[in-house]
Amino acid sequence: MSEAHFDSLMKAALLQRFPKQVVLIEEGHRPDFLHVVVEGLVELFSQHRSRETTIDIIRPVTTFILAAVATDEVYLKSARTLTPARILLVPAQAVRDMLTRDPDFARAMIHELALRYRGIVRTLKNEKLRSGSERVANWIIRTSQDGEKSGSIVLTYDKRTLASHLGMTPESLSRAFSHLADYGVRCHGRKIEISDRSALLSFAAPDPLIDG
Amino acid sequence: MSEAHFDSLMKAALLQRFPKQVVLIEEGHRPDFLHVVVEGLVELFSQHRSRETTIDIIRPVTTFILAAVATDEVYLKSARTLTPARILLVPAQAVRDMLTRDPDFARAMIHELALRYRGIVRTLKNEKLRSGSERVANWIIRTSQDGEKSGSIVLTYDKRTLASHLGMTPESLSRAFSHLADYGVRCHGRKIEISDRSALLSFAAPDPLIDG
DNA sequence: CGCAAAATTGAACCCAATCAATGTTCGTGG
DNA sequence: CCACGAACATTGATTGGGTTCAATTTTGCG
Predict the structure, then answer these.
(1) Neighboring chain A residues of B48 at a CB cutoff of 8 Å
(2) Residue B53: its chain A contacts at CB < 8 A?
(3) Under CATH, which number does the domain B131-211 receive?
(4) Is the pTM of this model over 0.70?
């Protein structure tokens, strides 16, 4: 998009810091701002009759509640920070105005919406087509290759949070880890070690159509 | 969008009929056409290691695999007709070209993508926050007020299909119906009767943030 | 060092899937 | 028009993955 347009958006926007576990938006409210995670982790979740479920975890740099801003309807989900975070807040009206003014911006928005859509489809497939242990196994594989430290991971947050990431209770996560011991996964405190990657891989069966 | 542009898209498109249970697209393939359901029901589903799950059910008139066309990446899900259907096939390249040519079209696409995104969020919430019986109860309520026939529904398709709609097996659906008998739901063959709507409502607890 | 939160472990339970058997419906061909 | 077979539907028994509740143990931090 044009630099002038970008600047005008940024001028209207605010960059704000939040501590962890702060609720940023609540389902049912109307969108005032488009949110962009600049730093930290944000969890999208939803509640109904005292039940709660994680819908997505957002990492930098991505937008969230873009769809609500685009349609100007109430949020379908709530968001909270999982870690301390920096969030860029862009006034919703400014975004909608820009849509009609800048075709490149509109195209970027299409791309972003499409990506987010595909992301949620992956999340859904991960949840519905895999057991808890399989989700953990795939999470280990993905995370351990991000860090490039071939054989181990050190958690940056606690296991409760990881469990909610993976759509399960802390108890289930704990049992999943002990199950994965059969495939060479050991975990001492916050350190997770992988001794037999190929065994883990064959159990996890990562799939580009789920894991990207 | 402009009529001329619309015509040019339509000229490139084809309207085709399909019998039921025909696989229209397969996950992992590249998008050749944007699909639009004009008539009938289409199920989006996905497979992994011999497991299969329904991701969404599309009814007229909506597009599907729009996100794959927008990003020009492989499909993340497959699609099959649940009933005989008429599908409009618009060449993917024509859609992408039109994006850059017609700003109104781009805006319409944003709107559609956002709607589809919100649709899948609702589906996900319905699945994760409700039990099977609750999903059935809410489906009954929604469907019975569509028809305006206050106290009864007549199924237009078989219960296997309904079960897949609702993300459960035919056996579970059957048990859910007998469970709902406690709330005044009787079902004889393809006819479902509701004798105590308020009891059903209090069990179902419909929610605008899930059911729309 | 000591306490509170987090993590693990065990037991009971619940929802839903699966397997298996039987009953019902529906479409078709005689 | 009826009879028959195949698909659909229901019911029961069993299983399994996962949650919940409760009791310890471990961890991390003041």
Answers:
(1) 125, 129-130, 205, 207, 209-210
(2) 124-125, 128-129
(3) 1.10.10.10
(4) yes
